[in-house]
Amino acid sequence: MLFYALPLLATAGTVRAQGSVTLYGTLDTSIEVTNPGNGWTARMDSGAYRGSRVGLRGSEPLGNDTSVIFDLENGFGSANGTLDTAGTLFNRQAWVGLDAPWGETRFGRQYSPLYIPFKGGLDAFGAGTIGSGLNNLSKITPYTDNALTWISPSVGGFNVTGMAALRDPGDGNGIGGYYMTANYTLDALQLSYARQQTHGDAGLRANLAGASYLFGPVRTYVALFNGDGGTPRYHDDGVSLSASWAISPLARASLGYAHARDRSGEGNNADQFSVAFEYTLSRSLLLYFTAADLENRGNATFTLRGVNVTGLPVAYPGAPVRGVQLGMIERF
């Protein structure tokens, strides 16, 4: 019996060897000192630039340049070890799909297509840290449950992504929301547009559009945004202007300005000015420093936050918020 089983075991081992599973992760920890209008407060943040996470991604070839793919990703606090979402293990991603010549499909919990890297591709601050006015003054849905996604291959520098989300059981039938992005790249120029519309009590409509251009060591960015919905209601539009300068292969400096306009007509606007510096110590280790000044107008209550960081609430409506942040990112 063992004689007959050996060829089967060898075959099974060969099939498994064709696939791969990769353990990966990011530890992003920073010290932030912020004044939200009532004095300076120091705290330790996790995930201000790139959310702290650990995950498993894998693929299994099926032939004809087609593979089954999956990603299971857990977000956690690197400052205290807690889950980002209590009671949910894979709170960032939990999907399975196919990678084929006609594009990539995914099914399950995923990043919104408007999230990193799309939003980060419109901003010198990567839509992260307290320095990103684009992140602080705009509003999108970062994660989506029950999502069906198609990511097109790039054709002539053009690619699109489409996502539809089904409602959770008990929340009615039909579509919970849809998302789409489009990118076009021509040499040093990149043009981008994205839209989302979610439904339900906290439904949010949002649009993002922008361009970036590389002038030697300097890349410039302009982004336009608007949105309506959410809880509490967000009803603003605005613009973000930023630039990054590659001082050397290891060092980069960024400068930015962003403005949000209150579309309700009540004048609750905001402006943010930011600077940042990054230094790459190794293939896996990055240091970053950011400083920002956010000026709320009227009764605006915007604050300085990060990718996975809830900003300190302002001391009173219209309060200015100023802060500095020093952090490090370790990837594996």
Automatic annotation (TrEMBL):
Any one cellular-component term (Gene Ontology): cell outer membrane
**Database matches in InterPro entries:** Gram-neg_bact_OMP, Gram_neg_porin_domain, Porin_dom_sf
GO biological process terms held by the UniProt record: monoatomic ion transport
Keywords tagged on the record: Cell outer membrane, Ion transport, Membrane, Porin, Signal, Transmembrane, Transmembrane beta strand, Transport
Q: How does it sit in the membrane?
A: Multi-pass membrane protein
Give residue ranges for domain Porin. Answer: 8-298
Where found, per UniProt?
A: Cell outer membrane
Signal sequence range: 1-17
Specify the domain of life of the species encoding this protein: Bacteria
**Do the record's keywords include Signal?**
yes
One Pfam family of this chain? Porin_4
**UniProt-recorded Gene Ontology molecular function terms:** porin activity
Quaternary structure?
Homotrimer.
Q: Which PANTHER family match?
A: MAJOR OUTER MEMBRANE PROTEIN P.IA (PTHR34501:SF9), PROTEIN YDDL-RELATED (PTHR34501)
Name it.
Outer membrane protein (Porin)
What organism does the UniProt record list as the source? Caballeronia sordidicola
Q: What is the lineage of its organism?
A: Bacteria, Pseudomonadati, Pseudomonadota, Betaproteobacteria, Burkholderiales
